[in-house]
Design brief:
This protein is mostly helical. It has eight helices and no strands. The protein has helices at about 1-15, 20-45, 50-75, 80-115, 125-150, 155-180, 190-215, 220-230.
Length: about 230
């Protein structure tokens, strides 16, 4: 009985809040992406592969972006003033837009290299299904996170949703290239790289929108931030 009570109190303290649960899921995602980025960087240096190195740069920028958002979320939770808290959250949101532009630019370089040189690494065998499963899982989590947190008008949570959407779309591009290559499509890399460049342009547009759009909604968002602090 005591153990059950302890577990309930532990859940309420660390995971009782929906935003805290979202943050914890993103911490796990951050660790996975960091391992992928470091692994690709090591392979790129070992194999002297520009493909792996440019991919590693994208993943490491993604990790830095998500890491700083999660760190600022912890700082914001400790703030007692709703106005100061919202000011910090809005700063994180705008900075997240800048990181999103960096992600778009870095991934466009990856796709441009794939289009011009065609030196993409194509997976084979059972790894193909692992890559596809990871890609669609990321997309499912991104869609679920957006739907589950649709009523939370919190700039930091919105930033995490944008970053997760970006990560999911990149995984879909990789999956498309792999599946088309398996089918011996002569234009597999060309079409996938063009799709990837289109996604990169979308990421940059999303980043610019984040950097400039929220000023219009500051009064509404600040009120929402106050209400969310009260719910905690």
């Amino acid at each position: 009985m005591k153990m059950k009570t302890y577990l309930k109190s532990l859940w309420a303290r660390h995971l009782g809040n929906k935003q805290d649960r979202t943050a914890m899921i993103n911490v796990a995602s951050l660790v996975i992406n960091a391992l992928i980025g470091i692994g690709k960087l090591i392979l790129g240096i070992y194999l002297l592969s520009g493909w792996f190195i440019t991919n590693a740069v994208y993943y490491l920028i993604l990790c830095v972006a998500k890491g700083q958002v999660l760190q600022q979320y912890k700082v914001a939770k400790r703030m007692e003033s709703p106005q100061e808290r919202y000011t910090l959250e809005l700063t994180v949101y705008k900075r997240g837009g800048l990181f999103l532009c960096f992600l778009g630019i870095s991934y466009s370089i990856v796709c441009l290299r794939m289009y011009l040189i065609g030196d993409a690494f194509i997976y084979s065998g059972i790894i193909v299904y692992v890559v596809a499963t990871v890609a669609f899982t990321k997309l499912a989590f991104a869609i679920y996170g957006t739907w589950a947190n649709r009523h939370l008008h919190n700039p930091i949570m919105s930033t995490l949703k944008m970053i997760n959407f970006t990560d999911a779309m990149v995984s879909i591009v990789v999956t498309q290239a792999t599946l088309l290559t398996m089918q011996a499509s002569p234009l597999a890399l060309k079409t996938s790289s063009l799709f990837g460049m289109g996604c990169s342009a979308l990421f940059c547009l999303m980043g610019v929108w984040m950097m400039f759009h929220k000023n219009k909604d500051s009064n509404r968002e600040q009120g929402s931030a106050t209400n969310e602090q009260g719910d905690e």
